[in-house]
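This section describes the prediction task in plain terms. A model, or a person checking by hand, is given the sequence of a single protein chain and must write out its three-dimensional structure as a string of tokens. No templates, partner chains or ligands are provided. The sample shown here is typical of the held-out split.
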Amino acid sequence: MKYVQNFIPLENHLFLSALIGLIPIAFFFWALAIKRMAAYKASLFTLLISLVISVTVYRMPVTLPIMSATQGAIYGIIPIGWIIVTSVFLYKLTVKTGQFDIIRNSVVSITEDRRLQALLVAFSFGAFLEGAAGFGAPVAISAALLVGLGFSPLYAAGICLLANTAPVAFGAIGSPIIAMAGPTGVPALEISKMVGRQLPFISLFIPLYLIIVMAGFKKAKEVLPAIAVSGLSFAITQYFTSNFMGPELPDVLSALVSLVVLAIFLKFWKPKSIFRFSHDEAAATLSSSKSILPAKTYTKWEIGKAWSPFIILTILITIWGIPQIKNALTGHYIGTNGVLKVLNHIGSWLSFNPNVPWLNNHVINGNGAPIAATYKLELLGAAGTAILIAAIVTKFILKISWKQWFSVFNETIQELKLPVLTIVLVVAFAYVMNSSGMITTLALALAKTGALFPFFSPVLGWLGVFITGSDTSSNVLFGALQQVSAQSIGMNPILALAANSSGGVTGKMISPQSIAVACAATGLIGKESELFRFTIKHSLFLLLIVCVITFIQSTFLTGMIPK
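The expected answer:
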């Protein structure tokens, strides 16, 4: 039972085929943004619609899209759902043991201002986590931290999703860029250079935009020096690292530089007035005896102990992201290092990659090659496992009993059942759209825009990340198409490849996976539609900026493109 992907199922009617392929996405937008349907229900109906279209319009044998959905569902559990569960679990351990009160105090000791806290936690710390781990961990952890600091859940989730725009293209140790290099044959460094000549403009703008969204333009003007320090330090470092070092370290180094430089700057500069949310002021008014700042002061040892779970987490996910170690943890290491060979043996034992029945090599792509389909269950190599190990180490540092440890873990699982179900359904419908050819149909329609293709090129990346939840997946999916389309109209293909990745970062904040992760981390379960409505306008606005930048670079500033 074979299926040859047909990207124009309605023969000679590409745009009509694209309209039909757009139905699942349009329904999902409508269900969340207008109908305000619960995310798991919207995801379930979208999955069913994509299954029906794949069978009736794209003429897939019914078994194939169903098995494709199971492949996506498994990926939704490992690694994505696993990251969410372990991230929230680690955060809850610090709350249950009272350590988060000390963490809150340490952040407030740097600045009481909510605007500056957002820059430190959502922008800089979140970018570091994106660079080291990716796959949902940055939003889950930084959003949970902001809620613990006193941010309202909706703002914490929305701000972290918005802040996560800047680092996505170089996330997970450069995975999106490296993944694109393979199918296109373009060196990763060349793609990295071009992305590094687009994204720094976004990275420079995001801190300002973030604070305007939070507090308005007048309040943003009050902290312009801090915004400038945060944005400039990040953008400059991002440019130099991406152009002279490659795609692996721009996020990690940019985030560290931005975090350290801003923290030092705040030792010497303070805003004239402290910005707090209305609920902060209300709490202060209700009880004048209760200060907004914690009355107790803590020693450096106590602060270090409170932060230790997240320090350990940072170290572990950084180690997990190193390519050689990652290969060993997933059983794919080829080398002579003794320690890595031992890890490789354990990783092989804990990695299961069975073929998807009735699907593996049964779908033939546009080049006539069969598409392999496996269930990826790499338990040791998953970033969520690194976070779980951090939680185990935390148990001993904070002296928690195993009974309490397991009690918190069980409580976390019970709270996150619906968000994980949402992610499973979302990834399932993404896989169905991909295997049937629906996503490529939409891409081909956009590629027909001719001279305007440089403007619309980032939209492909945005669309890919919205559907798949991953800039890496979007780059693999559309990289070759961007390359061929660019060459057909005389556009530099390296610019088109970079535009796919840069445009993709603006779709991350509205990806159903990202929305579910943020809601799970901040206790907004069942309110995914509210968060989607909050982020969609910002996503489209930032996408427009990337489209304009790409068009200008293609038309007027061609000297910015690497030779």
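For orientation: Residues 63-96 form the longest helix (34 residues).
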